[in-house]
Amino acid sequence: MWIVWLALFAGLPAAVAGWEARAPREAGEAHFARRGLSHGVRPPSPPPPVEPVAVYALPADRARALNAAIPFSRLANPAARPFRFEGSETDLARAVDCLAAAQIYEAGDDAVGERAVAQVVLNRVRHPAFPKTVCGVVFQGQERTTGCQFTFSCDGALARTPSPAAWDRARAIARGALAGDVFKPVGYATHYHTDWVVPYWSGSLDKLTRVGTHLFFRWRGWWGTPPAFRTRTIDGGEPLIGRIARLSPAHSMATPLLPGAITPMADSADAIAAQARQAIGLDQIGKSVGGVRLIALADMRSFLVELPRGSKPDSWPESARTFCAGRSQCRIMGWTANDAPKELPLTLANLAAMRFSYIHDTQSGLQRALWNCDQTPRADKRDCMRRRVPVAMPAPPAPTGLAGVRRMDRFETVKIAPAPGTPPSDAQQP
């Protein structure tokens, strides 16, 4: 009976995904390996489609056995070329935090696993089958009800808050990856999953390596070779992701920054962060702190305040000396008394009425102070908030099918695969 199960489920991914003819496979692989995976002409066909991928509903021990039965590719597995981010300081800060979120929620607080996840994300950014930004890749499919590419972005995992130490470590790894650090073992892998699930595509991609409990894969044929990863320009315009705003000051900005805007403060972000930290807690909400009334705070890094009546707009950045002292990441949002929000979450009307915003992130070098120039005119238009309010995408309901990338923290029961020879209804080969 065990032999029957093994034959059935080891062969089922091939039937669902439509494997290519394998008769001359060994000879073809040998020829391909001799070419070093570095040459070839782009085929006329488009890149493979990227769709949410369901997995077989199997007990974890049986899934591990089936995964072990799929051999590792004998083809060369060259290391990816260094990825060097090009874009503004704001875009870099957003990319770092999107990448860090993918790392820590997919791999947990594991430096090796996080480096592997980061490499897969950046490989996807370079491949024409995927979005052109880091944040676009990480949060691809978050708007779908049938699943997303990285399940943490749509299954409620973001409700958990990593420890400050774990988050800082993830961000450090992300910054390194965006500055050229390469995790060589996964090569040009664009897919991975834990060893206790069996995705539909596991038998149709080249299995490259194992890192901890994760198995890494790349597409077969030309689309998995190095030339496929340098066919287009990377778009540095990183989108604002409201879902990680509580973790990331770079994503908590209510209004995008105009390019080149700078803070008029004499103190740099590093100088402010080096000052002694003032204890500010929930017990001070509704009270005056540093000359302004504290409305709300989040993660001790984001402060909503009511600006004093009759105060001069040029004095508002000084609140950073109180709220941001001793903090490497800090965000201040200010309203006048009549427009101050009465409750959270903030509405679009609250965001439109905000009079002042300050943000700094010493690790990325970001420091900005912006005013609502509709109500507080500024001589330098770079000091103005852009009057466009991004709308955060609400989390879709939990999907029935799951993405083809898996975290290490659990095994989930998902849709059972159709019988051999039956076209899949909602899952396509990625």
TrEMBL record:
The alphabetical list of record keywords is:
Hydrolase
Pfam families per the record?
A: Hydrolase_2 (PF07486)
Q: What molecular function terms (GO) are annotated for this protein?
A: hydrolase activity
Record-annotated Cell wall hydrolase SleB domain positions: 109-217
Q: Is the keyword Hydrolase in the record?
A: yes
* UniProt keyword Manganese present: no
State the protein's name: Cell wall hydrolase
- Its source organism is Sphingobium xenophagum
